[in-house]
TrEMBL record:
<dbReference type="Pfam" id="PF13561">
    <property type="entry name" value="adh_short_C2"/>
</dbReference>
<dbReference type="InterPro" id="IPR002347">
    <property type="entry name" value="SDR_fam"/>
</dbReference>
<keyword id="KW-0560">Oxidoreductase</keyword>
<dbReference type="InterPro" id="IPR036291">
    <property type="entry name" value="NAD(P)-bd_dom_sf"/>
</dbReference>
<protein>
    <submittedName>
        <fullName>SDR family oxidoreductase</fullName>
    </submittedName>
</protein>
Length: 258
């Protein structure tokens, strides 16, 4: 049985993942704003530093896996928080936990991306590059050009940046070479509080009209099962992959884009 850090473990897919791992006998160290082992605010550097350290302390410096599910949806008025949580809340924690993951020998990390990275038109490349360069003010200015409509771009650029960071890192000597498998899960429309918040904030039509070839919405429990699979020995040969779990939306919009 392993020890796993799971951010966003108080709700939605992070919670479903934590429940799934616990029910299979693993130890889970949840990180979130409430109702978990490590209560921390990942939108600030101090919160991230404290969260990373407390997890390492509780895990005894050895982690079999890490899952970064904490995230904020693209709701207006919080572009900065979206970038801080969705990008730095993943990168800073995983970089701090990397030695503990390496210490486990054969470990796994799963980052929550989003299918919005391919479905959102005109994701500002400048914002993506600024995040990868650790320049949040520049990233904010880049999405600020969209004015009141900036939130979806802040969201998609944060997810594209974290996906690119994960793919770059995954193949490096520090990750692949240290026996850590790092992959990205890119969900589509999944029934969680985050989705309900999007719908309540004017995205109802966009959510209902999005092409989902198999129809309906995904369930957080099914996503939790996928994450456990990505943490298992079955994923030993998976490295830097982006798995779209979206009922076919990405395939619909990018059918021949391969
Ligand atoms: P959720 O809202 O149910 O859970 C997200 C969790 O992150 C919450 O428990 C929340 O408290 C935590 N969180 C937010 N800000 C935080 C902060 N500053 N510090 C610590 N924790 C914080 O959302 P859901 O839907 O389960 O999302 C999980 C991941 O999947 C997110 O990264 C989201 O962007 C991504 N995603 C969700 C989709 C959906 O349709 N639900 C679609 C594509 C991606």
């Amino acid at each position: 049985m392993g020890t796993y850090a799971v951010t966003g473990a108080a709700s939605g897919m992070g919670r479903a993942t934590a429940e799934r791992l616990r029910s299979d006998g693993h130890t889970v160290i949840g990180v979130d704003l409430r109702d978990v082992e490590v209560v921390a605010d990942l939108s600030t550097p101090q919160g991230r530093t404290a969260a990373a350290a407390e997890v390492l302390d509780r895990a005894g410096g050895r982690l079999d896996g890490a899952v970064c599910a904490a995230g904020l949806g693209g709701v207006a008025g919080r572009d900065r928080a979206i970038q801080q949580v969705n990008y730095f809340g993943v990168v800073d924690l995983l970089e701090s936990w990397r030695p503990a993951l390496a210490a486990a020998g054969n470990s796994k990390a799963v980052v929550f991306g989003s299918n919005s990275v391919t479905l959102t038109p005109m994701v500002p490349e400048r914002a993506v590059r600024a995040l990868l360069d650790r320049d949040p003010e520049k990233a904010l200015r880049a999405v600020g050009r969209f004015g009141k409509r900036s939130a979806p771009f802040a969201y998609a650029s944060s997810k594209l940046a974290v996906t690119r960071w994960a793919r770059r890192s995954a193949i490096s000597p520090q990750w692949a070479g240290a026996g850590i498998r790092l992959n990205v899960l890119a969900p589509g429309i999944i029934s969680t509080p985050l989705l309900e918040e999007q719908i309540a904030h004017g995205e109802k039509e966009a959510v209902e009209q999005l092409a989902v070839p198999i129809g309906g919405r995904g369930k957080p429990e099914d996503v939790g099962e996928w994450v456990e699979f990505l943490l298992s020995p079955a994923a030993d040969f998976l490295c830097g992959s982006v798995i779209f779990l979206d009922g076919g939306s990405d395939a619909y919009f990018r059918t021949d884009d391969w």
